[in-house]
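User: If only I could read backbone structure tokens as easily as an amino acid sequence. Underneath my words sits a plain record pairing an amino acid chain with its backbone structure tokens. This is the protein in question:
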Amino acid sequence: MKKTFFYLLFFLILTSNVFGLALSPPKINLGTIKSGESVEGQFLIINNLDKNVKLSVFADAYKNNFKISDASFSLKAKQKKAAKFILKAPEASGKYSLKIIVEEKGSSALINSYGVQIIFEVNETRPPIEDYASLNEKKDFNNAPFGLVQYSFFVLLLAVATLTIVVTTKKKRNV
């Protein structure tokens, strides 16, 4: 009987903070983002406890692309706070997922952490097909290594050399 009471008391102590903090919404879908583009979002942190808590907020992945408005703060008993974040989409296209972790740091050795899942898709930024067509129309031969001007000069020089050879050949035949 004493063992059962001890285990029940131990279980109640461990789970007393399980519903102490709440995050809303638990999942955020940012949709499709262009590569390199930044998007803003927010979620709500609710302290259901009868005590003040110290919290830290961070991302579990893509830390260089993620910024939170307040990375560390205190939340009073029964208080709510909107946490705003900015996420810069990675360069590579694909489907991505990360978790924003909210950790409660208390005086006990145990750390309670909660998370909000962020999902998004990245499309690479490419110029439209019209832009590729316009590149073909804007050829500049003056700055080319062997441009139109140099080519015209070469053809003229070749023509003069050929004409000189023909004229000298005719003079030799007539003499």
